[in-house]
UniProtKB/TrEMBL annotation:
Organism for this UniProt entry: Desulfosalsimonas propionicica
UniProt xrefs under SUPFAM superfamilies: FAD-binding/transporter-associated domain-like (SSF56176), FAD-linked oxidases, C-terminal domain (SSF55103)
Cofactor(s) required for function per UniProt: FAD
Regions annotated as coiled coil: none
Pfam families registered for this protein in UniProt: FAD-oxidase_C (PF02913), FAD_binding_4 (PF01565)
GO molecular-function term, one example from the UniProt record: D-lactate dehydrogenase (NAD+) activity
Family according to the record: Belongs to the FAD-binding oxidoreductase/transferase type 4 family.
Signal peptide: none
Organism superkingdom: Bacteria
Official protein name in the record: D-lactate dehydrogenase (cytochrome)
FAD-binding PCMH-type domain mapped to chain residues: 34-219
Length: 452
């Protein structure tokens, strides 16, 4: 046994470290189109102290450290691009505190969104958190590391806007806290202390998130979804503007996809409504339809696709077209809501060229301040040609989005380089200084967000 393996075993225990080929293989791939990249070791720490000791050892050995949450990013962001140690954080899955009156809970970063939802259903059914459209195994820390967004994005913004505090292991091993928790107080706010938010959106390049204070929000007794359908994509931005002005919806998502056939060339606006009584729900529904959507029904340009459907969380990930062999990856972008028609046409064009049924989706973020737009490309894992087509489509979409004025969300390395090539030179230099200051040995998830 080599010295690194022995050191890892001493920190996390023999059962939670491996250098065996068959186990490293599991960590060499994610669910997207990225080529396999093998770590040399995988370790699963249980505490922030264990994470700290591993990072300190990795600095001494000049070994890369790649933090892994649920592995749901699809973009290769948690693959060991430079070998080293993959740090599987899913054992750090404790819910540490629930403060109902303060509407927050403190969790370890490896807790899954599904576990948080289940815990709240059982212990505080009147509260909820913003759940992403990913599978329930997606972790809290992983979602924050990519600026994730969820089904409360319309009123409250990105999930990274909905936290009160962080505990982070720095790239040199120190454990650091941000927010009121840094003063030894409760985990109730990040403000008004100096802004030290250097860890969200970096995909683990500046530190490893180990604890989070999540903001919670009222969970109404009745939650339903209405669906409004239009054929003309140019109508979508003005309809969303009207819906956000009323402010009655909890989530607004637009979907169009070639499969199944009823979706093809139609735009389904999913409107999530919630209320503590049937009267409250119907009041909101009446405001939305009578004051905003009735015009389109009367003109014959829109129609009601469904009303009063029970909501099943999560739903966004189910909009993807799964081929035989089950694989898909998507380009995500944060764009103005008015981008939707052009984004839809882009998805249809690129998908047709690569013989992939198109799937596009937009979610309103922050009362219409922006939209998360995604272009999904399905492939058969057993067919290299379809994988290659999907990868080419992803790269073309990255390039076109930036040409059209969009901002790539959780980009893979290819997209990261495109972003940094276009970035203001002083901003890029500041990123380099921050990374160098925090990570002098360059061990944290190297290969991602590397500034030349």
């Amino acid at each position: 046994m080599d010295s690194v393996y022995r050191a890892l075993a001493d920190i996390v225990g023999e059962d939670y470290v491996s250098e065996q080929t068959e186990e490293l293989f599991t960590y060499s791939k994610d669910l997207g189109t990225s080529e396999p990249r093998w770590p040399e070791y995988v370790a699963a720490p249980k505490t922030a102290d264990e994470v700290s000791r591993i990072v300190e050892m990795a600095n001494e050995q000049k070994l890369a450290v790649v933090p892994l949450g649920g592995g749901m990013s699809l973009a290769g962001l948690a693959l060991a691009l430079r070998g080293g140690i993959t740090l599987d954080l899913k054992r750090m899955d404790q819910i540490l505190e629930l403060n109902e009156q303060g509407r927050y809970m403190v969790v370890e970063a490896g807790v899954s969104h599904g576990k948080v939802t289940s815990y709240l259903h059982k212990n505080a059914p009147h509260l909820m958190h913003s759940e992403p459209g990913a599978p329930p195994a997606a972790t809290i820390g992983g979602n924050l590391a990519i600026h994730g967004q969820g089904d409360l994005a319309h009123p409250y913004g990105f999930n990274s806007d909905m936290i009160n505090g962080l505990e982070v292991v720095l790239p040199t091993g120190e454990i650091c806290r941000m927010g009121s928790c840094a003063l030894g107080n409760q985990w109730y706010t990040l403000r008004p202390l100096p802004d030290l938010s250097l860890f969200m959106g970096w995909s683990g390049c500046t530190g490893i998130i180990t604890k989070v204070s999540l903001r919670l929000f009222p969970c109404k007794k009745i939650q339903e979804q209405d669906v409004f359908v239009v054929e003309n994509e140019n109508l979508v931005p003005e309809i969303l503007f009207k819906l956000t002005h009323v402010g009655m919806a909890e989530d607004l998502v637009v979907v169009s996809q070639e499969i199944p056939p009823p979706f093809n060339r139609l735009h389904y606006i999913l409107i999530n409504l919630a209320g503590d009584s049937r009267e409250e729900l119907e009041f909101k529904r009446q405001l939305i339809f009578d004051q905003n959507l009735a015009k389109y029904i009367q003109e014959g340009t829109g129609g009601i696709g469904a009303a009063g459907q029970d909501i099943e969380r999560p739903v966004v990930s189910k909009t993807s077209d799964w081929r035989k062999g089950g694989g898909f990856e998507y380009v995500g972008a944060i764009v103005p809501v008015g981008f939707y028609p052009e984004g839809f046409r882009l998805g249809v064009e690129i998908s047709a060229r690569h013989e992939i049924p198109y799937t596009v989706l937009g979610r309103v973020v922050g009362c219409g301040h922006s939209m998360m737009f995604s272009w999904t490309y399905a492939f058969n894992r057993a067919d290299n040609d379809t994988v290659s087509h999907a990868r080419q489509a992803l790269h073309e979409t990255d390039e076109r989005v930036l040409e059209m004025g969009g901002t790539l969300w959780k980009p893979a390395v290819f997209g990261q380089k495109l972003v940094m090539d276009r970035m203001d030179a002083n901003t890029r230099e500041m990123m380099k200084k921050v990374k160098t200051l925090l990570d002098p040995n360059g061990i944290m998830n190297p290969g991602n967000w590397e500034v030349a």
